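Let's do one together. I've listed all components of the complex below, 728 residues spread over two lines.
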Amino acid sequence: MPANVSAEQVRIELGDRSYPIFIAENLIDQMSGWALPQSHAALIVTNTTVGALYAPALEVALRAHYAQVSVVTLADGEEHKTWASLNQIFDALLARGSDRKTVLYALGGGVVGDITGFAAACYMRGVPFVQVPTTLLAQVDSSVGGKTAINHPLGKNMIGAFYQPKLVVCDLTTLRTLPARELSAGLAEVIKYGPIADLEFLDWIEAHLPALRAHDPQALAHAVRRSCEIKAEVVGQDERESGLRAILNFGHTFGHAIEAGLGYGQWLHGEAVGCGMVMALHLSCELGLVQAAFVERCTRLIAAAGLPTQGPPLGVKRYLELMRLDKKAEAGEIRFVVIDGPGRAEVRPAPDALVAQVLERCCR
Amino acid sequence: MPANVSAEQVRIELGDRSYPIFIAENLIDQMSGWALPQSHAALIVTNTTVGALYAPALEVALRAHYAQVSVVTLADGEEHKTWASLNQIFDALLARGSDRKTVLYALGGGVVGDITGFAAACYMRGVPFVQVPTTLLAQVDSSVGGKTAINHPLGKNMIGAFYQPKLVVCDLTTLRTLPARELSAGLAEVIKYGPIADLEFLDWIEAHLPALRAHDPQALAHAVRRSCEIKAEVVGQDERESGLRAILNFGHTFGHAIEAGLGYGQWLHGEAVGCGMVMALHLSCELGLVQAAFVERCTRLIAAAGLPTQGPPLGVKRYLELMRLDKKAEAGEIRFVVIDGPGRAEVRPAPDALVAQVLERCCR
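Okay, and this is what the predicted structure of the assembly comes out as:
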């Protein structure tokens, strides 16, 4: 892999599936000089919003490596994380006669990364791919660790694969064009790492929240690097989520129910996770695992990040129904990521009555 | 895995993904007493034809293991190896609130096995599955080795995954109801193992072809076992087809072009492979790798098995166009499995002009 890259580097250690994450400004422009996966052809997958801003630069960089470089542009938004978008990629690949060495480049946020990764996992039973995340959420979470998927009307990320990229390129420059709402959504996944794993990082986020929300490059660089480090450590121990990795889903059991219940694309994924963390914190408190003061502290931070802390009124019955389809559920029993003392998380079931209480308190 | 099974056993050795293939009569009825993957629920995937014959017996056997056993029935035929059928499985799983321990059972031929395996690979990023192949083709080839896929209008098996079953159950009793045309299609994949790997087996097939076509149980048992042994040896060395495994695609480059070119379901997969082997043998001869007498010998056997030896007149241009999308192709160069001396195969390109000659000779 690239020996001549001047950027902060975090490594995901997974034996012969290991790969680096590069974090710095202006990385896309430098990629022409790197050692990228070799092939005759590359396909950039992006969306209408991001493609207009960064696809031309990535295309130029990749032309130094590949005889054929094409772009496929998907519709933007979580509601397009579907089989139809996935098939748009397959159609593009087959129309170009793409072989099984063709390299896919995912240029965009979490939706583009997840769909592209899943397309790479399935096309001809697997082609190499590279993540070039352009949102904070994708840089700190979804582009790292090889979880790929599309949504099903009945549940989020239900159809997918564990499939690792060859490389993740976090070009911090792309965050400059990120709308405030998207930045806040990304902060939800940054904040997540505090309560589940690193209280020092939680302190740091609290202290630097204004800088982060103001797109301060140094603050963003640290947030991305530390988030990736924590994720790398967890994924390195449990790639396929047999145990530990599930803690990274803190806030996601409630959050996915919000996304599916409202219809994909109503709330951003990070918004649903922000609110879901508040719910999961209250549940942890009800279970006697964490003090009310810690719940309040985290809730204040989530609100200050510009995220919702009250869920939509879907009704307790509907929430429970949606959460029973969560991937952590077993034989109809929902399993929640709860905070088991500040900085430590675990996965466990909870009585429906307790969950109902939490939902009633946290929804309006 | 089952300790108390009285059946011939072939093992696929792939480290922690190893599994047994059981081969005997009346196995479905015995499964109630085996040690199967544990879970709360199982879903049998079958098709309209096979389901009516064997789903009730399998359901009874599985009820001894799982609190919830359901059946989803797909339309029968290669033309239904599509996203729509795959989604029928996902819908059934989600409608039942299936968790990620749910075990899928593929009861049917190659199409059912390939779709079910791919559904198992993708549902919640992977659930366990068991192959219960009920056609000769599936028992000797497609149910073994973890290749799963659906078709794309532009190319066969283009969307899929390498995903191994936990167990393969070849119940020879199910072959009794197999129509003659399907039996012949299966013989194509049996015959395949001769020229690429085992001339003694080729002798045996020639000697026992009448018995095989007459559904003789002992002859079928030997054909299934020896085919699985050869496949197990190849797959054990090269699970993801980085090299050696490609020889198992002997006849498939031409064959897939026939299937896609005529429209899926016109010819059975085995029929296309039978004819494709004749073409590949002629190509091997043109390349100076094998004698004309060997081509004639194999062609006679393929014809005697009830398989076509002349391809449909799609035109050389269309054949080449379709074959350039073959998964073995690289940078637009088609790579063929050729016989490099009787009992030995290799993968290599061939001049278009030579391929055109072969196609003109082998199509009418």
